[in-house]
Specification:
This protein is mainly alpha-helical. It contains eleven helices and no strands. The radius of gyration is 17 Å and the shape is globular.
């Protein structure tokens, strides 16, 4: 990390509260939490937003949109975390490797490929998204609310990935260690994971 976070033993107020709750949640204090230590209210707001995204969106689709966004923004930290989530909950290692390398050359159906296409375009060139991009999702059965949720997942991930990557946050060692070498390679989309 490029900035010095507040040390746990020096944390006070909201930072101390967040450190305590996130350590309890994860079993350790993640670096992506520590990077927010100089502005804990921003972390609190982020947790609120991402909680709404996860609550209201199909979790598998959310993870696919998140992975597409992380890949587009070259966020190894986010790609590792969400690639692991996909592997642990929805797909085999080989399937996630294929999805991470080229989702068009994977077992994903047309709807999931379209969601990842939209996420990539929205993350890389939001002003280039056209009505036809949205119409494609509609034609595949997504409601306007579901399309909004995909765009919201992309925007939320873009905020988080931009923040943590610009400050040099690395993926958690426990996540990296839990990945097979071929999966870690496919999810290393920016800075090296270690």
């Amino acid at each position: 990390m490029f900035i010095e976070p507040v040390a746990p033993e020096s944390a006070e107020g909201l930072t101390a509260d967040i450190y305590e709750s996130e350590t309890e949640r994860w079993g350790f204090l993640p670096d992506f939490v520590r990077v927010f230590s100089h502005h804990p209210e921003a972390y609190q707001a982020w947790r609120g937003l991402i909680g709404v995204v996860y609550r209201d969106m199909d979790r598998r689709r959310c993870e696919l949109a998140t992975l597409a966004t992380a890949r587009t923004l070259q966020s190894t930290c986010c790609a590792v975390a969400h690639g692991k989530m996909l592997r642990d909950n929805f797909y085999s290692t080989d399937q996630v490797v294929k999805i991470a390398r080229d989702h068009h050359d994977s077992d994903l159906d047309e709807v999931d490929q379209a969601i990842m296409d939209f996420a990539e375009k929205a993350a890389s060139q939001p002003a280039a998204v056209t009505p036809s991009d949205v119409d494609r999702l509609r034609s595949l059965g997504l409601s306007d609310r579901e399309i909004f949720d995909v765009a919201l997942a992309v925007a939320a991930r873009a905020f988080f990935a931009t923040l943590i990557e610009s400050l040099g946050t690395k993926p958690e060692a426990s996540m990296v260690d839990a990945l097979e070498p071929q999966l870690l390679s496919a999810l290393t989309v920016g800075r090296p994971a270690v």
